[in-house]
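Hi there. Long-time user, first ticket. I'm pasting a complex I've been working with (about 619 residues overall). I'd like to know whether the download I got is complete or cut off, because the file seemed smaller than I expected. Thanks.
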Amino acid sequence: MRKSIALHLGLIALLIVLQFVLPAYHHGNMARIMVMATYAMGYNIMFGYTGLLSLGHAMFFAAGLYGMGLSVQFLGMGVGPAFGMGLFASLTLSLVVGLLALRTLGVAFMIVTLMFSQTIFLVILYFNPYTRGDEGFVIQQSVRHIFGLDLSDPTIRYFAALVLFSTVLIGTLKLVQSNIGRVFIAIRENEPRAKMLGYDTWRHKLLSVVLSGTVSGAAGASYGILFGYVGASFAQVPYSIFPLLWVLLGGAGTVIGPFIGTLFMFYLIDLSSTVTDAYMLVVGVVLVLLTMFARNGLIGIVRERWAKWLP
Amino acid sequence: MEFGPHLLLATLEGLVQASVLTLTALGLSLVFGVMRVVNVAHGEFYMLGAVLAWFVTSMIGGSAAIGFMAALIIAPLLVGLLAALADWLVLRRIDYDPERTIVATIGLLYIIQQVTLMTYGPDAHPVAPPFNTRLALPWFEFTDGGLSMYWPWGLSTTSYKLFVIAAAIVTLLALWMLMAKSKLGLILRATQLDGETAQAFGIPVEKVYALVFGMGAALAALGAVLVVPIQQAHYLMGDDPLLLSFIVVIIGGLGSLRGTVVAAILIGMSDGIISVFFTPTLAKILATLLVAMVLVYRPNGLFGAKPA
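Hi, the file is complete. Here it is re-exported in full:
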């Protein structure tokens, strides 16, 4: 317990130090990675800890993104309340999707989430006059202020991303060490047994979907605020596949894994895109290799071999 | 055009789409039925079929008919071999675990798509149809003078479109004969019923799986070769067929071949007809949502009787 808290606080401290030493390009990347790692941590609650594989998480990310963006655009809200709207949108969506999709299991669950997500993407396209479809819209720099701080300023943006990331990181750590988190893991390992022990597994699964969807939505809303762009491409299939990939690479069911996976994959794609435009090829190859040779991901391997205490 | 002739035209277009969709969806259904895995890369095998058809026809040159006939044989064969190889190298090693297979085939999807982008390029290329005679269609109407026949302007189809429908029917019959009457069909059905018992009776289940995976991909490729003279070959063309095939296989009942055919005709036709009369995005939204709901409330599909 001590070690795990030290490790995660250490990571946050390291990220604070990096703010002052990273060159501009990597500094910007790291802010983006922290937001995306938050998305991955949200995904991990459902997939890594509860064992529910969703292929449609882009809809939750997009719900946060558009819930925030449309509130700014059409209700004239500041980014603070608009962030709340994003959270509310993704919470509502994840509740509805959870209630429906949890009636199915395994492969059917994966396909149902994929289809709901596709529906959300098409709805965004359909309401083109408001959402501007594929083209998307920009959150004006003049709006991107909170408590008098300019969120488009690189340093402030970095710290805003860090606050989001740290909150979710520590939150996830607390969650998986709590009783609820342990029931999630019990469901992942053996749902009938968890049920037999008297746990209401259905309620716990629903809670897991809602938590996961809302954290993903928070990442989406923050992405829109910090980087100033809202677009339909974030609702498309690749953005459902990315968190799966990040979590698998870093280690499903580890608190720190999603961050490691996002960091690795981000720079892998960054490096390969200097060589070829077809950077999604790297995504494909890594996915296949992971399923074949490293089911537990990087941190999963570390946990197996050296550090059994990793949460 | 009046409503009647317009509807006939929409129905004909729908039939062409339904034919191609039937072949593609049957491939997906066959793989799911026998191997119990979902192949997310199915749409990319479809795309590969179309792209290879373009390569073959442009390599052979000469008359369009010869090139096309060659493509009709070579493209599905190559795609089938490639899929069997992918099965042998990847899926066999992860023991056909359903969830890991989906992740691995998502990986395959991007590999195939991006390698095509790097070699074939981002542009769409047309393939010339082997024959393409325009056939005007008559319309009948009751007038004061009794039944009269006339030729509405724009009501026509092509001989090639009729060929697509015929080719799909022939392939369907051949597949049905194979499954129902041949020894290979018996082996496939035995593996579908119970893989472990089949293995105990000396059926080389791993080889059967590779064969089925190859056959499924080849069916998708065949559908694509047939469609490529109507649509052009493009590296992203696999997305829509994948989604539609999913829809068909789910509505038809996971793993039921007969249900798949019925659902493919139903959905291909209605997709063709709906897209003539309504905006495509709204139609897609309703269709996708409807299918998700079917899966939620009837997990075995509308026609699937036995639990999956």
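A couple of notes from our side: The first strand of chain B starts at residue 134 and ends at 136. Chain B has one domain: 7-134+161-297.
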